[in-house]
Every structure is written in structure tokens, then in C-alpha cells.
Amino acid sequence: MSARKALSPRAHGQVRLPHGDALSPLADAPILEATALSAGWRHGGSETRLLQNVNLTLRPGRFVALVGPNGAGKSTLLRTLVGMQAPLAGAIRLRGVPVASLSVEDRARLAACVFTDRFDSGWFTVFDIVSFGRYPYTDARNRLSERDRETVSEAIRETGLRGFESRRFAELSDGEKQKALTARAVAQDAPLLVLDEPTAFLDAPARIEVFHLAGRLARSRGKAVIVSTHDVDLALRHADELWVLDRDHAFVSGAPESMALSGALGRAFDGPVVRFDPASGAFRAPGEPVPFAVGISGEDPVALGWTIRLAERLGCVIEPEDGRYDAMIRAPGAGAGQAWELEHAGTVTRVDSIEDLSGRLGLLVADARTRGEAP
Amino acid sequence: MTDSPVPGFGLREGTARRRAGFVLLGVAGALLFGADLAFGSVGIPFAEAVKALFGAASDPAWNDIVRIFRLPKALTAASAGAALALAGLILQTIFRNPLAGPDSLGIGAGASVGVGVVVLLAGGSSGATLLTGLGLAGWAGLAAAAAVGSLAVLLLILAAARRVENGVTLLIVGLLVGYLAGALVSLMVWFGSPQKTQVFLGWTYGSFSGVTLERLPVLLGAVGLGAALTGRSAKPLDALLLGERYAESVGIRVRPARARVLVAASILAGAVTAFCGPIAFLGIAAPQAARRIFRSSAHRVLMPASALLGAVFALTADVVAQTPGGGSVLPVNPILALIGAPIVLSVFLRGARGKDPA
Structure pTM? Predict the structure, then answer.
């Protein structure tokens, strides 16, 4: 009982401002610290180091996204941080206590995890699955106290699954399953929440919901949340901080915007075909450059934006520095009759839809491409 | 902090259904137990058979028949059925495979090797009297040898399970390990003396009638020990359904928990195999039927339910084996296959359709 009280986050339940600016300095003490951490696999005498000399600190109320290409060691880092895999070197502290010295039960009270592991949930209901989160607190017969039930119900509410309690887990959609598993981790009442690729099997709205939920748990519950993900654009928009692992297993961390501006994301992900475009915060696969330059203008920013995207998709060079245009496009204004003007070789053509514009511009680009290849 | 009297976990809905299920199974078990006492080469009226238990039957010969022969047989059938069902439940959870069972994973075959070593290779010169003349300590040794054989196969399968994720592949591994154990047994039979071999072959048919009143405590003791070890493991077993990583992340020490239930399964399957021979299908079918009837995946429900169903299946098989009347008694294995194979088949087909949970 005493251990339970000491470790319960409620014992530290301060009112806090967004982004973990706690009123009490004590409550802002790091939940997770790693110093000079090396992680990887040890087989026999040899070691495979996936990560070297990682230093990180995570405070309550912070939502961190861990990004990096496949094989960079994201899952290894997460498993090592929560003590499920021994580090090759360095120290990890959970709430100031070396993780290696914690019992399995104490670790469960400090860090709750959601994995990508699939399992046959049989007849278990959503309530059953979420109540697995109470395991570190229940007795050997796993009886749920009133407080346990309340915590379970609260976690179910928090993740927006109210009314799903007695539904069978197996019958849920992938997005609902992810929410239920997250609720299970919330019910575990641990100050650190680790979600390993929670968006892997989800459709676009469900992905955003996951990030939204992770952010809310950090801000309203004061949890430290780590989400590993391939959705870099969502991570850039939602996370307080980005942890970036690159192909060479180097670790960098900082504000999402700074990771984009400093080129850290580019270094982590850029390959021969796909590049991270810091201007748009998205990945691009720029095709062969086409010697066809366009200038685009327009008053309505939305129409202008999509017109630029069309030109980019077709492979045009946009706004060349030498100022020589092969064509000019005027996107329609907000109130105007929804018509685009395409000026090429001295003639102006009015097209009524972006669909039409796409067809005409496409022909011009194809023409320029064949002429470019001819000599 | 008030502990609510009703356990909430895994018991949210259908409490009435579960209560009715346990009552019905209990009544069915009791009736079948009585029938097992009444049926046989000498037919005894049901009421008289029950009276004979207390030495109060109208025919004194019936008292002896029931108390010396049929009571041990019925108790053996009930406890063997319960034990195999529990072992099957454990294996299905640990291997996360609804088709795992003592026989499908080759664990019964492992027990056979243990028994074969004792019966065919060890022992004195008097092979024919080996099983019949074995003392209580000898029977305990036999059960222990069978349990060790089971555990050896289990550890082998567990090592294989770490390499193969696919459940069906695991069953094929179990099949191959079973062949391997069968080959060892065949070789031992080849080199054993004819008398010993005959005793051993008789054992392989599977029967509940070989356990006398004196030996019964050894079987019941082993089954009780296995059941006690299992009963204390409901919590970790539930967590292991989610996989080892989830189990560890909610504070379960996976290795000791798994070791405990695997030892329990070996004792349960090994002891039953030592005393009754290899019994097919019960271990797979009973937990399956328990899940279906009780609509639960929680081990606190499935353990008593599987054990009860196992006992009911075994008693049914034993009763059916007696009914042809006259002196001939059918072997129980084909009868269990007739009950069990359709259950397992339906589970397999439902699983393939992705409909109900297994």
C-alpha cells in the first residue's frame, strides 16, 4: 500500500499550466533521464549497438514524438528506456531511481506501454482489457476494488470510449482498439506513457485522434508521453518535442520546428528518392526536373496554394530565379467566376476548372519534356 | 478501500449464464459419476450403486464391486479428465494457440517415453508383473518419469515457439516431436522383453480402469498438486493472453510465472498419462468447450469450467465404453475422439472464418 501511494501520480497532482509549467518546481522534476546511453543487442560476446551516447530528459506534462526511419532503433530505445531491455552502457532513471534497480511491479507503476503486438483477445470486453492496467495494484486474485473500477471507467471516458465498456474488444475497429489499449495504459496510473507506433494500422482521422489524445494526456493529466511514429507531419504539428533518430543511429532532440529548420529531419530521412521538405514540413519525391517554368499569382490563398501544388505535381519549375517564365497562371480570386487564366506563348486561355488547367498544363509540360530530351 | 465481493474482471456480462453453466455441469458430472458406478459387466441400479458407496446396497456383492472396482475407476476418469483439461488450458494460453493440447504438442508422447524408460528398460527381470506388481513408490516414480518426459518435450516446444511465430507451424513442430518420441518408444519396445512389451502396449490403449484403490492416492495427489499450482496462476495466465511483453509491462514476472504453470501442466499430463495411458482430444476440446459455454477468457472462470467439462467428457467416454453390455469394454480413446474431434474441428473452422473467439 505504501509503495502504491508513493508512486501514484495523484500524490503529486498539481495544477499545471500547459506544456508542463508546473507551479511546484518539485513536480517538474524529470520523470525519465538517460545519460550516455547505448542500446542494442548483446549476443554472446559481441554487441550490436543501435544507439550510442544518447542523453535525454523528459519532464511531466511533455509530449514527445520519437521519429526516425525504419531500423533506426526506435523500438529498441523505447524498450530500453522502460527497462524491458538492458542497456549496453549508460544510466536510465525513472523518477530519479535507476531503472535496473526497480522491480517489475514498480516499473509497471512508473511506465505504462502500448505495443504494436497483436493478440487474441477472446471474450475479453473493453472493460476487461482496460482493467489489465490495474494489474500492478491488484492482489494475487486480481480482484478490482471500487477505486480500481473508477480508475478503469475514468480511463475509458478519457479516451472517448464511454459506452463501449461491455463491447468485446475483438469487435472494435483498429482505431477503437488503439484507444482501448491507450486507456489500458492510462488506467495503469503511471507518470510515463510510452506508445510504440500507435498510428501504424489506423486511417487518417484515427491517426490524428491518437496524437490529439496523447497531447491531452500530457497537458491535462500531467503525464510524460512518448509516441514513436512514422507520421512525421503529425508529430511536427502535435508534439512538444521531437526525438530524432537517423539511419546512422545518431540521436537529436529539440522543438519540432527547430528539428525541421536545422535540417535534422532531413539528415534522418533523406534518401536517393524521397527528401524532407522543410518549407512544407512534408516528404517529397521530386521527379526529374522539367525545363518548364511557371509563375503563379492569385488573391485567394487557398486557390493559389492548390494551383501551386498542381504545378509542383506536374514537375514545373516554379518562380525561377532568372525570371524567365514559359507560362503564367492566374488563380481565381475569392468572389470571381472561378476561372483560371493560363498565359503561354503570348495567348491567354481561360479555363473554368482546375481540372481543365491540369489537362492543359500537363500537355505543355509533356511537350517541354520531349523537347528537352530530344537533343 | 472497499473490496467489492463480486470480482469484476472477465465477469462483466452473463453472470447468470455462468452460474447456470456451473450448476448444470455439476449436476451432469454427478449423474455421470453415478452412471459410471452403475454401468458395467454387472448392471447395478443407479440408486443401489449410490447406496453401495456407503456399503448399504441390498446385494453385498454390489458393495464390493462399486467400492473396490468402480469407484476408483470413476474417480480416475473424473480426475484424469479434469487434469488433462487444465493442462490443455495452460498450454493454449502459454502458446497462445487454441489448438494446443497435451496430445497435439507431443507432450503425451513425451510422457510415454518416460513411462517406456521405466517399464521397458528399467525394472527387474519380471516384466509381466512390472505394472501390476509395482509398489506405491514405484507408481509415484512412474508418474514422475512421465512428468519429466512431458516437461522435456514442453521445453523443446517452448524453444521452438520462440523461433516460429505461426501457430500452425508450432503444431507441426509438436507433431514432429511426437514422432520423435514415438520413435524412441518403438526402439525401446524393440529391445524390450516380449512380456514387458505386451504390458507396455496394453498401456498405450488408454484406460481409466487400471488404477486400483491403493494407487488412487498417488494419482489424486499428483493431480491435486498440479491443480493447486495452476489455480494460483490465474492472474499471470490472463496477462499472458496479451503476450509476454504486455504481461511484463503490467508487472508480471513472466519467466517464473510461465515456469510454474508449465511444471503444473507437465505434472497433470504426465501423471494422467502414467496411470491411464495416452488419452487423446480431452486436453484440447474441454477448454474450447469451456470458453464457448461460459463466454469468457478469464482463467478464474475457465479453470473450474475446463476441469468440470474435462471430468464430464471423461466420465461420458467411460460410461459409453461400458454400455455395449456383456464382457467387452470399448477403449476410451476412440470415444473421446468422437466427442472431441467435432469440437476441435468447429473451433478450427470458426477460427478460419474469424467469427467467434476460440
Answer: 0.84
